[in-house]
Amino acid sequence: MTTRMSPPRTRTRRARVLLPVMLTAAILVGCSQTPTALTTGGSEAAADQGGLRSSYSVAGSAADSAADPVAVSATTQSMITTATVGVVVADPVKAAAAVSELVDQSGGRVSSRNEQAGSSEQDRQAWAELTVRVPAEKLTTTISSLASIGTVENTTISSADVSAQVTDVAARVEALKVSVTRLETLMAQATTTAELLEAESTLTQRQSDLESLQAVRDQLADQVAMSTLTISLTTTPASPVLAPSGFWGGLSAGWDALTTTLNAVVVAIGAALPWLALVGAGYLIYRWVRRRAAATS
Length: 297
Prior knowledge:
By secondary structure, the protein is an alpha+beta fold. It is built from 8 helices and 5 strands.
């Protein structure tokens, strides 16, 4: 069976026809892609130059550029832990000094310290209360160490997950950093006084927002790294408050409520009497002045 080969002229004609078609298709594809890139670049330039009042557009683009660091930071869980401990000791004032030393040894610090010495003559009970900040990883060890100072009566520990908040603040800080850099570039490239003033005003606002967010970020970091521990030192354990039960229990509770209310009413009347006397004196003076005015007229 014989295969017919196309004549050289036929193949040449086909090549001449297909070549312009291929070139036209390549040009069309290139033109369809070029406007997209130009549109994207133009929108970013408009957001920086003509849309300085819109902080969201700049922040959004910057957040996309900082997506990788934020995603890395989001892998770690951020917890804010607080705890309260009640300790029964023989001398709360001395125990408070021992607690302060214990906190210093753990790498923490004392935020506040209130104490009162006991007095048998005035029937005054000694007590002390400390609010301390300790490294989060040493909170459990610090609470356990309080057993060497006194009898740990009660312990309450609570934690709050702030990972999402930490990630959000970190992303917004990075976004504002990029925005500030862009505005500084725009100020350097400003050609008119109006453009310069607009860029400067927006830059001032962005820098203020950035400093505020950085303060929030640092505060969150401190709360995550350092747990808050409140320690109450007393000489006697706290007596549980029992709810009244039965008829006599209800009668006793009602009597206590009645006496408390009457006492509050008496105190209110006593506090109001000086004011009532002052208002009465002012009213009498007013009446006297009116009578004198009526008599002279």
